[in-house]
């Protein structure tokens, strides 16, 4: 059924599909791990059980989101070898060690302390458990550090040498590769996006329960904390995004041209197009609605500053303008909607109506998934805007793919779609099921099995030990005499 398809296009769709699924879980777990650390720290400092209840409430959700993030990320690493073997071969000497550092310094740290964080509340001291929670939170941020360093190097490759066999080899300084020109901006922008995404999920859940019961103290506290985050961090994110855009203009100008819809150069100041329909064939923006010279003011801080357009870029080096143009506007629109909710919450707090204004609660509930929309739109803008290169200006995407037939790629794509929607759909449904339950005093957190770990010796399979005597019970409940043991 895929004989008439392009194998390269199918491979790109497959990677885009899997990485989009993966991206939403770390975007949530990074912020949620830090939120859990804050909650536990406040509980230790104040002794208020309310913070412990909220910690246990969100810990259950974090456990599922973290697990789905790990599982969805494993699949992507295999695709480097199956669908993108040429990329893995030529870029492996640079990309491979950075990804290995992520496993060694971040994933092992998270995995090592995750069990203590999830199940050790009643088995270790309070300070040790808090240290484990901090290590998980730090581990998620370190993981973001290395992954974004890899991704940023693909956008702004520096510090490499070309080997005789065409491979990218690390130069004399690894720090030049790690801290490539776009990395600091992308790291700040992405981590802040993760914190904001979590804040709006927490705020949306709090708002949902406030709509049902305004007197719920747990819902009040989580809503208040989330709205503080929205009000204070979203403006910082807008500033960080502006700085990231200026960095992109310096190193990847055609991406910014596509974001702005600038097919033509503007020597006397470029307009900021709010809407329009990109027309790649005719190289123009149809039905454009814009504000004169505002783009030059934003990008160059000068109304009359000249800005080059895509007419200065060869056709075969231009990114798909329509995708980049619209994904960028979705990200910006969602960002300003977040800012609006944050400012609205400040007004409500100032007037003493934070828990009374039902329309604010409804708006926060509607905006609960907005962070996921924004991070996906931002990722699409970044990655599609880099096309037609996988390593900017050095390795074209079409040259990085494996020599596979379209039916092979298409079959695995269909399998991924079916399995992902079944497995992760069930996981998301269960997360929403947990969120639907109101937080309350005496939250139980993540529970271990009543019988502890399964043992492979000491009892007959299918039998359970009755703690009151030396007999055993089978699964039907009838008692049997214990077996003799050597």
From TrEMBL:
Family listed:
Belongs to the cytochrome ubiquinol oxidase subunit 1 family.
- Where primarily located? membrane
- Keywords on record: Cell membrane, Electron transport, Heme, Iron, Membrane, Metal-binding, Transmembrane, Transmembrane helix, Transport
Q: Which domain of life, per UniProt?
A: Bacteria
Keyword Cell inner membrane in annotation: no
Membrane-protein topology: Multi-pass membrane protein
InterPro entries this protein is in? Cyt-d_ubiquinol_oxidase_su_1 (IPR002585)
Output this protein's name. Answer: Cytochrome ubiquinol oxidase subunit I
Q: Name one GO molecular function term.
A: electron transfer activity
A GO CC annotation recorded here is:
plasma membrane
Respond yes or no to whether keyword Transmembrane is given for this record: yes
Membrane-traversing stretches: 20-45, 57-78, 98-121, 128-148, 187-211, 223-240, 323-347, 359-380, 404-432
Task: Kindly list the places in or outside the cell where this protein is found, as annotated in its UniProt entry.
Answer: Cell inner membrane; Cell membrane
Per the database entry, which stretches of residues form a coiled coil?
none
Disordered: annotated segments: 449-486
Species source reads: Qipengyuania pelagi
GO biological processes: aerobic electron transport chain
């Amino acid at each position: 059924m895929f004989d008439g398809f392009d194998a390269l296009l199918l491979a790109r769709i497959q990677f885009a599909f899997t990485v989009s699924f993966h991206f939403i879980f770390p975007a949530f777990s990074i912020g949620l791990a830090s939120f859990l650390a804050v909650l536990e720290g406040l509980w230790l400092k104040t002794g208020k059980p309310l913070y412990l209840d909220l910690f246990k409430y969100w810990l259950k959700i974090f456990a599922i989101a973290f697990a789905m993030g790990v599982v969805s990320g494993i699949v992507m690493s295999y695709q480097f070898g199956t669908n993108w073997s040429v990329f893995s071969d030529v870029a492996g000497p640079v990309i491979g060690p950075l990804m290995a550092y992520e496993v060694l310094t971040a994933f092992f740290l998270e995995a090592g302390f995750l069990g203590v964080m999830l199940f050790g509340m009643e088995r270790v001291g309070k300070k040790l458990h808090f240290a484990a929670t901090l290590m998980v939170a730090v581990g998620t941020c370190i993981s973001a550090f290395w992954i974004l360093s890899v991704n940023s190097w693909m956008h702004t490759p520096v510090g490499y040498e070309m080997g005789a066999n065409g491979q990218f080899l690390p130069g004399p300084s690894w720090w030049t590769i790690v801290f490539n020109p776009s990395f600091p901006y992308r790291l700040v922008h992405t981590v802040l996006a993760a914190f904001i995404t979590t804040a709006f999920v927490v705020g949306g859940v709090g708002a949902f329960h406030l709509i049902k019961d305004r007197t719920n103290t747990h819902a009040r506290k989580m809503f208040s904390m989330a709205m503080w985050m929205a009000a204070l961090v979203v403006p910082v994110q807008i500033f960080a995004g502006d700085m990231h855009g200026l960095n992109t203009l310096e190193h990847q100008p055609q991406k910014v041209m596509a974001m702005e819809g600038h097919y033509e150069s503007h020597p006397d100041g470029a307009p900021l197009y709010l809407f329009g329909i990109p027309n790649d064939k005719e190289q123009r923006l149809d039905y454009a609605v814009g504000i004169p010279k505002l783009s030059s003011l934003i990008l160059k801080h000068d109304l009359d500053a000249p800005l080059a357009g895509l007419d200065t870029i060869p056709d075969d080096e231009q990114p798909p303008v329509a995708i980049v143009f619209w994904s960028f506007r979705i990200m910006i629109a969602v960002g300003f909607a977040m800012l609006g909710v944050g400012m609205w919450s400040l007004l409500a707090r100032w007037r003493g109506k934070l828990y009374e204004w039902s329309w604010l609660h409804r708006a926060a509930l509607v905006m609960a998934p907005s962070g996921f929309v924004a991070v996906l739109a931002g990722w699409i803008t970044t990655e599609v805007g880099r096309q037609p290169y996988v390593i900017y200006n050095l390795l074209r995407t079409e040259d990085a793919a494996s020599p596979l037939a379209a039916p092979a790629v298409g079959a695995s794509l269909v399998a991924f779609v079916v399995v992902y929607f079944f497995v992760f759909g069930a996981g998301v449904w269960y997360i929403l099921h947990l969120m639907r339950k109101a937080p309350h005093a005496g939250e139980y957190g993540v529970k271990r099995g009543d019988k502890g770990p399964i043992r492979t010796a000491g009892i007959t399979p299918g039998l359970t030990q009755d703690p009151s005597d030396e007999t055993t019970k089978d699964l039907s409940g009838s008692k049997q005499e214990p077996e003799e043991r050597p």
